[in-house]
Specification:
Layout (H helix, E strand, L loop, with lengths): L7 H7 L15 H11 L4 E7 L8 H14 E10 L10 E4 L2 E3 L8 H7 L4 E3 L2 E5 L2
Parallel strand pairs: 1-2
Antiparallel strand pairs: 2-6, 3-4, 5-6
Helix pairs in contact: 3-4
Length: 133
């Protein structure tokens, strides 16, 4: 979720026999996103990654929306991985461009929000990890 405009990670995963799909409402077409949801959504995905996504979303309620999409995409026992760019770590969000925003929050500040959707979420080796129960 939030994979950007390019398929570098998807192409890399193919080398290992992994099918990856990018859903990104800001950088991909509606057609592309619907295809991603049909192929990887509806509780079929083994894993979902949100890397450098939550830190660029200004509104906390949109964090929950992204997390619910991840939850709905995962199969039971599927795993969620979250990483963020912490910016200057000040906790003071700011516009970084015309259409971009940076929260500047440390990873652990996102954990309570993640736990609203994934109660078993925890910090593990520099990322947040959760399993769909």
């Amino acid at each position: 979720i939030g994979g950007g405009r390019f398929d570098n990670a998807v192409e890399h995963l193919k080398k290992f026999g992994v099918n990856g799909f990018v859903y990104d409402p800001y950088n991909r077409s509606e057609e592309h996103n619907q295809n991603a949801l049909q192929n990887a959504g509806n509780g079929q995905a083994h894993t979902v990654s949100l890397f450098n996504v939550l830190n660029v979303i200004q509104e906390p309620e949109h964090h929950v929306e992204a997390l619910k999409l991840a939850h709905n995409s995962l199969r039971t026992s599927g795993e969620l991985y979250i990483g963020v760019y912490e910016g200057d770590k000040s906790g003071v969000g700011k516009q970084t461009g015309k259409d971009s925003y940076q929260r500047n929050e440390k990873l652990e500040t996102y954990l309570p929000t993640v736990q609203q959707v994934f109660p078993n979420a925890k910090l593990h080796k520099g990322i947040i990890v959760a399993t769909k129960e």
